[in-house]
Amino acid sequence: MLATRLMAVGDIRTLEVPKPVPGPGDLLVQVEAAGICGTDRHLFRGEFPSSPGTTLGHEFSGIIVDGATAELPLGTRVTCDPNHWCGHCDQCRRGRVNLCTGNIATGLGRDGGFAEYCAFPAMRAHKLPDTLNALHGAFCEPLACTLHGMDMGAAKPGERILIIGGGVIGLLAVQLAHLAGGEVMLLTRNTSKQQLGKSLGADIAVGTDAQMRAHWPDGADLVVECAGVAATVTMAPGLARTGGRVVVLGVLPSGEQVNIEPFDLLFREVQMHFSFLNPFTHERAARLIAEEKIVVAPLVSRTISLHEAAGAIASPAPDGEVRAIIVPHR
Ligand code: NAP
Fold first, then answer.
1. CATH topology assigned to domain 144-274
2. Residue 105 Cα, ligand 1 centroid: separation in angstroms?
3. 28 forms bridges with which residues in the sheet?
4. Which numbered atom of ligand 1 lies nearest the CA of 251?
5. What is the Å distance from ligand 1's center to 296 Cα?
6. For a disulfide at 109, which of 40, 104, 305, 306, Cβ 3.0-4.6 Å?
C-alpha cells in the first residue's frame, strides 16, 4: 500500500510499504480522510520530536476492515484518538493522561493515517455515523484538543471571548465559544479567515490587537491563543481584562521564549493556562462532529492524494488555506 513517511528531518516521501497487520487489540481501518496539521510540518522541519521512518497522520478517520469487535464491527466508521497513554505512570495514575510519559501517539510514535490503511488500538477508536461526510471525521482530533483548551478557559454565557488565530484550531474555538454563549471576537490577519470566522459564530473579526482594543477597551474575559507564534502568545495576556483568563493552545518551537511581564499578570490577577492534547475529550468531539453542532465543511480548503501529500507537508500552507485533507482512496 502507499504511505507518506517521514524518513528523517527534511526528508518525507510517499512510497510502497507493507499493509499493516493489526496486533492484539488493534483495529485495521481503511483510511478515508486525514488532515495535515501544523505539527506535521513542525515534524518535517525538526521542530518537534519525531521517530524516523514513521508514517505521519494523527488526524484521521476510516472504516474498520480487520480486528473487529462486538462493539466495533466490520464496516464501522471510526475516528482515531491518536494518543495512547500507558495507564501506569505517575501522571496517568493522577488522571493527567495527556501528560503520560509513555504516550506513543499514532502518526507520531507509530504509523499513522497518511496511508491507505492504518492499525491502531481499538480502545482509541470512537464511532462515527455512516451518514457523515467522510472528510469530516478528520476534524475530531483537532476539535478534541480545542475542547480541552476551552474546558480550561471555562467560558460563561455573556463573557467576552477573544480567539487569536484563524486556522482550524481558532475556527473550532470560535464555534465552541459561540456555543458557550459568549460574545466572540476573532483576531486573525487574513481577511478571508476573518469572514469565515464571522460565518461560524464570531460577532466581530479584526486583524490587529489595536483593532481588538478599539472594540473592547477593557479587554476580554477569556483570551484563547490559537496562532502558535511568539507575537500572539506575547500579546495574549495584555488583551485579557483585569481578573481575566488566558489559555494558550498554540505550540511554539521547543526553546523559543516570549516576553511576558509577571508584574502585570500579578497585579491584574490574570490567569494563564496552557492546554496540551485531548484528555477524555475525543468522544465529545466525535459527537459534536457527528451531530453537526460544529461545522467543518468550510474548513476543508482542498483534498489531495497520497502522491501529493509529501509535497504539501514539505511546503508552508498556501495563504488562506485552513485544512488540506488527504484522501488515500480516490
Ligand atoms: P494554523 O493553521 O497555522 O493556524 C494558525 C493561524 O494563526 C493562521 O491561520 C494565521 O492566520 C494566524 N496567525 C499567525 N500569526 C498571527 C498573528 N501574528 N496575528 C494573528 N493571527 C496570526 O494552525 P492550527 O492548525 O489552527 O493550529 C494552531 C496552533 O495550535 C498551532 O500552533 C498548533 O501546533 C497548535 N495545536 C495545539 C494543540 C494542543 O493540544 N495544544 C493541538 C493542535 C494544534 P492569519 O494568516 O489570518 O493571521
1. Rossmann fold (3.40.50)
2. 21
3. 66, 119
4. 32
5. 16
6. 104
Q: Using the atom order of ligand 1, give the atom closest to the CA of residue 39.
A: 34
Can you tell me the distance from the alpha carbon of 282 to that of 266, in angstroms, rounded to the nearest whole number?
34
pLDDT of 47 > 90? The answer is no
pLDDT digits (tens, 9 = 90+) for 118-137: 999 999 999 999 999 999 99
Q: Domain spanning 2-131+296-326: which superfamily?
A: Medium-chain alcohol dehydrogenases, catalytic domain (3.90.180.10)
- What are the pLDDT digits (tens) for 139-192? 999 999 999 999 999 999 999 999 999 999 999 999 999 999 999 999 999 999
C-alpha cell at 276: 496540551
- Provide the phi-psi class of 63: left if phi over 0, else alpha when psi is between -120 and 50, else beta: beta
Q: How many angstroms separate the CA atoms of 287 and 308, rounded?
A: 31
pLDDT on residue 118: 98
Q: Is residue 328 within 8 Å of residue 31, measured between CB atoms?
A: yes
* The model's pTM: 0.97
pLDDT in tens, 227-246: 999 999 999 999 999 999 99
CA–centroid distance, residue 143 to ligand 1 (Å): 14
Amino acid type, 170: G
- pLDDT score of 330: 79
- Name which residue sits closest to atom 12 of ligand 1, judged by CA: 165
